[in-house]
Amino acid sequence: MQADVLVEGGGSIYVFRIFSESARDWVEEHVSREGFQPEFPNVLYVEHRYARDLALGFQQAGLRVR
Fold first, then answer.
1. If we measure between CA atoms, which residue out of 16, 7, 63 comes closest to residue 42?
2. pLDDT tens track for 13-58
3. Lower CB count within 10 Å: N or C terminus of the chain?
4. Contacts 24+ apart (CB under 8 A), 3-12
5. How far apart are CA 63 and CA 55, in angstroms?
6. Which strands sit side by side in the sheet containing 43-47, from one edge to the other?
7. Is the pTM of this model over 0.85?
């Protein structure tokens, strides 16, 4: 089973790699790109204080997070 989202890193910054169209759609609807967020459609850079909630949001939407 392939993940929709892969979470890497730790410390100050986590990298969320977006693999599925469903996950990209969820990001477009729920994640702000204001501030520093490079325009990479398949990658999110997330401060550690938001990473857990973001991962839970993906999971609650039925997306597979690894």
1. 16
2. 999 999 999 999 999 999 887 766 666 778 998 999 999 999 999 9
3. N
4. 3/64, 3/65, 3/66, 4/58, 4/63, 4/64, 4/65, 5/55, 5/58, 5/63, 5/64, 5/65, 5/66, 6/65, 6/66, 7/51, 7/55, 7/65, 7/66, 10/48, 11/48, 12/47, 12/48
5. 9
6. 5-10, 13-18, 43-47
7. yes
Q: What is the pLDDT of residue 25?
A: 95
Tokens coding 51: 């990473």
